[in-house]
Amino acid sequence: MNRLLIKPIPVPFLEYILFTFFLPVCLSFCLTETVMDTRTATAELGWISFPANGWEEVSGYDENLNTIRTYQVCNVFEPSQNNWLLTTYIDRRNAQRIYVEIRFTVRDCASIPSVLGSCKETFNLYYLEADRTMSEIISPLFIVHWVKVLPYSATVTP
Protein backbone atom coordinates (compact mmCIF):
# COMPACT_ATOMS: atom_id res chain seq x y z
CA MET A 1 0.00 0.00 0.00
CA ASN A 2 1.47 3.38 -0.97
CA ARG A 3 1.32 6.11 1.62
CA LEU A 4 2.43 9.69 1.70
CA LEU A 5 4.28 11.39 4.51
CA ILE A 6 4.28 15.17 4.32
CA LYS A 7 6.84 17.27 6.09
CA PRO A 8 6.66 21.08 6.15
CA ILE A 9 10.37 21.36 6.77
CA PRO A 10 13.13 22.47 7.01
CA VAL A 11 12.46 25.93 8.25
CA PRO A 12 15.97 27.35 8.57
CA PHE A 13 16.43 30.65 10.37
CA LEU A 14 12.71 31.13 10.70
CA GLU A 15 11.07 32.83 13.57
CA TYR A 16 7.41 32.42 14.56
CA ILE A 17 5.50 30.21 12.13
CA LEU A 18 2.05 28.85 12.75
CA PHE A 19 1.06 25.84 10.68
CA THR A 20 -2.31 24.28 10.06
CA PHE A 21 -2.90 21.67 7.39
CA PHE A 22 -5.78 20.75 5.16
CA LEU A 23 -5.12 17.87 2.76
CA PRO A 24 -7.88 17.17 0.28
CA VAL A 25 -6.97 14.46 -2.21
CA CYS A 26 -8.29 13.53 -5.59
CA LEU A 27 -9.05 9.80 -5.54
CA SER A 28 -9.88 7.63 -8.52
CA PHE A 29 -12.61 9.25 -10.60
CA CYS A 30 -11.70 12.58 -8.92
CA LEU A 31 -13.69 12.05 -5.78
CA THR A 32 -12.39 14.41 -3.12
CA GLU A 33 -11.51 13.10 0.31
CA THR A 34 -9.72 14.85 3.15
CA VAL A 35 -6.91 12.72 4.58
CA MET A 36 -5.73 15.24 7.19
CA ASP A 37 -7.30 18.40 8.55
CA THR A 38 -5.71 19.99 11.61
CA ARG A 39 -8.13 22.92 11.62
CA THR A 40 -10.58 20.97 13.78
CA ALA A 41 -8.03 19.33 16.11
CA THR A 42 -8.64 20.00 19.78
CA ALA A 43 -5.83 17.86 21.19
CA GLU A 44 -2.10 17.93 20.55
CA LEU A 45 -1.13 17.12 16.97
CA GLY A 46 1.91 15.13 18.06
CA TRP A 47 4.22 16.13 15.23
CA ILE A 48 7.95 15.54 15.58
CA SER A 49 10.22 18.56 15.78
CA PHE A 50 13.94 18.95 15.23
CA PRO A 51 15.64 20.09 17.28
CA ALA A 52 13.40 18.73 20.00
CA ASN A 53 13.15 22.12 21.69
CA GLY A 54 12.96 24.08 18.43
CA TRP A 55 9.18 24.16 18.16
CA GLU A 56 6.31 24.67 20.55
CA GLU A 57 2.78 23.42 19.91
CA VAL A 58 0.18 25.91 21.10
CA SER A 59 -3.46 26.75 20.68
CA GLY A 60 -4.20 29.85 18.64
CA TYR A 61 -7.08 31.45 16.78
CA ASP A 62 -7.90 31.62 13.09
CA GLU A 63 -9.37 34.64 11.33
CA ASN A 64 -12.86 33.65 12.56
CA LEU A 65 -11.65 33.32 16.17
CA ASN A 66 -11.97 29.52 16.10
CA THR A 67 -9.43 27.71 18.28
CA ILE A 68 -6.77 25.91 16.22
CA ARG A 69 -3.60 23.96 17.03
CA THR A 70 -0.42 25.60 15.77
CA TYR A 71 3.36 25.30 15.95
CA GLN A 72 5.77 28.14 16.51
CA VAL A 73 9.56 28.31 16.42
CA CYS A 74 10.93 29.00 19.89
CA ASN A 75 14.65 29.57 19.42
CA VAL A 76 14.52 32.77 17.37
CA PHE A 77 17.71 34.21 18.85
CA GLU A 78 19.87 31.13 18.22
CA PRO A 79 22.45 31.43 15.41
CA SER A 80 22.42 29.01 12.45
CA GLN A 81 18.89 27.78 12.96
CA ASN A 82 17.67 24.68 11.16
CA ASN A 83 14.16 23.92 12.41
CA TRP A 84 12.22 20.93 11.08
CA LEU A 85 8.65 19.88 11.70
CA LEU A 86 7.42 16.41 10.70
CA THR A 87 3.70 15.63 10.50
CA THR A 88 2.23 12.37 11.63
CA TYR A 89 1.92 9.63 9.05
CA ILE A 90 -0.68 10.35 6.36
CA ASP A 91 -2.24 7.43 4.50
CA ARG A 92 -2.94 8.64 0.96
CA ARG A 93 -5.15 5.62 0.29
CA ASN A 94 -5.81 5.34 -3.48
CA ALA A 95 -5.15 9.00 -4.23
CA GLN A 96 -3.40 9.81 -7.48
CA ARG A 97 -3.01 13.50 -6.65
CA ILE A 98 -2.58 15.33 -3.35
CA TYR A 99 -3.40 18.98 -2.73
CA VAL A 100 -1.80 20.57 0.32
CA GLU A 101 -3.05 23.78 1.86
CA ILE A 102 -0.80 25.32 4.49
CA ARG A 103 -1.81 28.36 6.48
CA PHE A 104 1.06 30.07 8.19
CA THR A 105 2.15 33.33 9.74
CA VAL A 106 5.68 34.66 9.58
CA ARG A 107 6.86 37.41 11.86
CA ASP A 108 8.78 40.22 10.16
CA CYS A 109 12.50 39.86 10.93
CA ALA A 110 12.80 43.62 11.31
CA SER A 111 10.40 43.46 14.27
CA ILE A 112 12.75 41.21 16.27
CA PRO A 113 15.74 43.03 17.78
CA SER A 114 19.19 41.41 17.70
CA VAL A 115 18.53 38.61 15.18
CA LEU A 116 20.50 40.11 12.30
CA GLY A 117 21.90 37.09 10.41
CA SER A 118 19.80 34.37 12.03
CA CYS A 119 16.40 35.42 10.71
CA LYS A 120 14.73 34.38 7.48
CA GLU A 121 11.14 34.77 6.35
CA THR A 122 10.84 31.68 4.16
CA PHE A 123 10.33 27.95 4.48
CA ASN A 124 10.39 24.86 2.26
CA LEU A 125 7.88 22.03 1.96
CA TYR A 126 9.14 18.48 1.38
CA TYR A 127 7.39 15.13 1.06
CA LEU A 128 8.38 11.49 1.13
CA GLU A 129 6.36 8.54 -0.15
CA ALA A 130 6.70 5.54 2.12
CA ASP A 131 4.97 2.31 3.01
CA ARG A 132 5.41 2.90 6.72
CA THR A 133 6.03 5.72 9.16
CA MET A 134 9.41 7.34 8.99
CA SER A 135 9.36 9.04 12.39
CA GLU A 136 12.92 7.92 13.07
CA ILE A 137 14.15 10.09 10.18
CA ILE A 138 13.92 13.50 11.78
CA SER A 139 17.44 14.75 11.24
CA PRO A 140 18.26 17.33 8.56
CA LEU A 141 20.95 14.88 7.44
CA PHE A 142 18.23 12.82 5.77
CA ILE A 143 17.06 15.60 3.45
CA VAL A 144 18.34 13.64 0.45
CA HIS A 145 15.42 11.23 0.90
CA TRP A 146 12.79 13.95 0.70
CA VAL A 147 11.42 15.69 -2.41
CA LYS A 148 11.14 19.47 -2.37
CA VAL A 149 7.74 20.65 -3.60
CA LEU A 150 8.23 23.03 -6.55
CA PRO A 151 6.80 25.26 -7.68
CA TYR A 152 4.51 26.46 -4.99
CA SER A 153 2.43 29.57 -4.83
CA ALA A 154 1.83 31.62 -1.75
CA THR A 155 -1.04 33.98 -1.31
CA VAL A 156 -0.08 36.83 0.97
CA THR A 157 -2.94 38.41 2.87
CA PRO A 158 -2.58 41.45 5.14
UniProtKB/TrEMBL annotation:
Location in or out of the cell: Membrane
Keyword Ligase attached: no
The Eph LBD domain sits at 32-158
GO terms of molecular function: ATP binding; transmembrane-ephrin receptor activity
- Which InterPro entries does the UniProt record give? Ephrin_rcpt_lig-bd_dom (IPR001090), Ephrin_rcpt_TKs (IPR050449), Galactose-bd-like_sf (IPR008979)
How does the UniProt record describe the way this protein sits in the membrane? Single-pass membrane protein
Q: Which chain regions cross the lipid bilayer?
A: 13-31
State the name under which the record lists this protein.
Eph LBD domain-containing protein
